[in-house]
Write a structure and sequence with these properties.
The structure is a single chain. This protein is α/β, with parallel strands linked by helices. The protein contains 14 helices and 11 strands. The strands form 2 sheets. It has a 7-stranded mixed sheet with strand order 1-7-6-5-4-2-3, sandwiched between helices. A 4-stranded antiparallel sheet has the order 8-9-11-10. Strand 8 and strand 9 form a beta hairpin. The longest helix is centred in the C-terminal third of the chain and has 36 residues. It is globular, with a radius of gyration of 24 Å. The termini are far apart. About 45% of the residues are buried. The structure holds pyridoxal-5'-phosphate. Pyridoxal-5'-phosphate (PLP) binds next to helix 6.
Amino acid sequence: MHQWLSAEQQRRLFLDTAKAATDYREAAHLLPHVPQVGYREALERFDAPLPEGPVDAHEVVADLQRLSDGALMLPVGPRFYGWVIGASHPVGVAADWLAAAWGQNAGNHHASPAASAAEEVAGRWLVDLLGLPQSSAVGFATGATMANLTCLAAARDEVLRRVGWDAPAQGLFGAPELRVLIGADAHATVFLGLQLLGLGRERVTRVATDSQGRMSPDALRAALAEGPGQRQPAVVILQAGQINTGACDRFDQLIPIAHAAGAWVHVDGAFGLWARAAPERAHLAAGVEAADSWATDAHKWPQVPYDCGVAIVREEAHLRQAMSFTAAYLPEAEADERDPSHYVPELSRRARGFATWAVLRALGRSGVAELIERHCRIAAALAERLAAAPGVAILNDVELNQVAVRFGDSDELTLRTIARIQQDGVLMAGASAWRGQQIMRLSVSGGATDDAEVGPTVTAILAAWDAVRAADGAP
Ligand SMILES: *Cc1c(COP(=O)(O)O)cnc(C)c1O
């Protein structure tokens, strides 16, 4: 048998790497939350010609650590509020190591019975936690971008099938017109999905939203009433968790309106759908279970290591007609067997089910609920303390985990304060734009963030704001 490494070398490589990862995680709370080394310097470090021959295994992994040092973002840190990012739960990391060490391809159940089985059960657990119909079909994709695309492919194909058009076979050339209605404050990546699906990112009807970015029921009703006919194939895209405000659409009002017009309802719930997993927040997404498909992320709020998005479709047949394929060299699955590749647009891929199964099992229902509730509570506390400071405004109703902060009611002052905060590195928060204004967005979604971080976070933010004001000669 050919061996790249002797048994002893391999043992040392794996154990030393595990030790390095352990050391990193143990000291993570002491590291700056923002990389001190930027992209250009990182590229200079890595940039080298392809080695002409093998390089010692230990040296390769040691180099990877050395070259990355200082150029890593710190989502695993206690005060990480950038984007909406999870913190790689340790059990998920361990499960992911095994998935890689086992070298499993999750494409079909022959290639890895365990990967297919773990994925099937993890999918059922996800649907259970989110309070969605238990018979829904689940596909594991890279992230919510691909999960949205996957669900929207199922939506497109099914609404066209109902009017006699076989889109999976015939494509869209000559197909009946299909309307897509989407909230004015939807996430940018959903438009990428529409673009890739031949539905066009600009051809959609953008439905008006309220001050928090929630779709207006009256505007949806009016938009659906326009156009050639009630029964025109249509897809309505709703949202759980607007990226700046955290607001969820009023599903209990909107979904019946869309269904009355015969539309398919898809929900982008990348992070907001997780409100459903916390009893005290579940009301925020009341009625979402009536939709036809849902996309969410396991790598955001539930802390599964990157990458893991989840596509959920109420009717298994609708997902399968959009995603299945046959290949002579792949054995067909029996009715009680599940090939992961028939639920997403990928064949060969990482066994995401292992890490998802492991993290959900480690947390349990109460652990997930505690995580979501804790983060929402922290977001509310941050908002309250910041709003009390002079010159700081909170622009959203903080019901979930997102806080939109503005400094001195000025784009320039807000951006300068963010730059100062990032320079200090005590926490990470980034800029966004909301209603035409620059904001600092705090997204509380890191597993290492607990209530004790509220004080140090507020102190660091206000110190940066004070420094910016002092530089301007404010009293
Ligand atoms: C993050 C996010 C996405 C995109 O998800 P990825 O996992 O980054 O692909 C889509 N919609 C919303 C609302 C998000 O927050």
